[in-house]
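Practice problem: predict the structure.
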Amino acid sequence: MHTTIDSATEVVSGIRFPEGNRWHDGRLWYSDMHTGEVFSVDPGAPGGEPRLETTIDGQSSGLGWLADGRLIVSAMNARTIQVVRPDGTNAPFADLSSIEPSLLNDLVVDEDTGRTYVGAFGYDLYGGEELRPGPLYVVEQDGSARLAADGLVFPNSANVLPGTRTLVVSETWGGRLTAFDIEPDGSLTGRREWAALPEGVTPDGSTVDAEGAIWVCSVDTGEFLRVVEGGAVTDRVDAPGLCAIDCALGGEDGRTLYLATADSYDPATTARTRAGRISAVRVTVPGP
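Answer:
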């Protein structure tokens, strides 16, 4: 498949910067990073209006669900992971502020163990600081956190490949996907390059499908690429002139790919334009 965003169906618009796309419990969930708001929407419902789930103080990014069903959100500026109460308020679940000075980024919950893996920028991107490698942390179900890996070039989204104990992480400014073996205690070993991406591709959000291929969003080049281990690209959706931010597989049969785009990742620009949106295309291979 090779298509463009123009052929996609619009699901939600008027977002500043849509992040953390997830399909959960029959709904599409996402955070508007530049407002701190977290929403869910039923794309098949008449009207399909988003429902506000919670608001994080500062920027919000990755979403996940703990083993007991509670929603968690990475609070980037506070460098915490917030847990959302039934009434929509939120409170710290894990506090990484004493061990991590840079903004937190995306997260993934390992469904087999309930552990959470969360990355951090590693440097002050918005302040113009020189690029430095960043860390990946593992958070236990009690909220305690420790370093799992370091030296990643802007660690971003991560996926546990279905049927394996392999975690694959996007290194945005490194232009690659990096794999680790997940040990029984949650530690990460066996670091290796899972896929070197085409020149210029900057992997941001991602999602894995039932065959273990990963849909990668290239924020700088406006592309959504389905990549298999080794780096071959089998399918693509082009979004020229836009930031390709995140994606999720979902819908009734798991074969709808939700595509999150915006016109910029600069908060000053998105405050003015609110051009972010989530669109949908049909794909062949469903989510896991």
